[in-house]
Design goal:
Elements lengths: L2 H4 L3 H7 L2 H16 L2 H5 L6 H22 L5 E5 L9 H15 L3 E4 L5 H11 L4 E6 L13 E5 L2 H10 L1 E6 L4 H15 L8 E4 L1 H18 L10 E4 L2 H16 L1
Parallel strand pairs: 1-2, 1-5, 2-3, 3-4, 5-6, 6-7
Helix pairs in contact: 6-7, 6-11
Amino acid sequence: MSNNMSREPLAFLYKRSRSAPKTIQAYRNQMQKELKGEAHFLAGRHSRTSETLRLLRIALEFIRGFRALQNIGPAITIFGSARFKEGSPHYTLAQNVGAALAAEGFTIITGGGPGMMEAANRGAKEKGGTNIGCNIILPHEQEPNPFLDKVITFYYFFVRKVMLIKYSYAYICLPGGLGTLDEMTEAMTLIQTGKLYDFPVILVGKEYWKGFYDWVQGTLVKSGAVSPSDLDFVHLVDTPDEVLAIIRNLVERLMH
């Protein structure tokens, strides 16, 4: 019998060893001393008391978010990178998208930070729109941008993500990085699985998003991991006018 067939699974070796659990626990203890906040929460097991208190804190954060956003008007959430600064073509695109949506009377919800979030809020503000920022506490502090009418700062990423999705009728995905991908695919998954109404997910910037879009179509759909109909709500566009055309179709559909 080969070594691969005869050796015990690692989990069994872990249970049998007297030193490994102590060594791993010592590592966990040291790691948890060094980590703070959400990173500490996600680092592993904690006492039942600690976990219960954490649950209460999470619940209070949800309540605070619900109360802050309960009475906002029809809203659209805009995702995008914090790293693209003024002067970038992406920044200008975000500013124009925010302005176009605000001119149609929509409240703009963003992550509240700099870059594309700031640009979208800036464009909306120039058109007299209302801006909501769902900010997040990070190790390197993310300051709210100056174009927000209301700021809710969250401690937990997952609570913030619920607020960004829960109160919107469409999701605009401007050029961004891993955070934008996370938010975009979260919305897509919720719609695909029937947890969320099939509001449009609009990827703005064909050149930027083409690689991702082609991979989804050419790999996920082609392999059968995703059905073509699962992507009926996903749109790839280039201009604010194209975004508005999709939103108009949504409004007409909701009114009938």
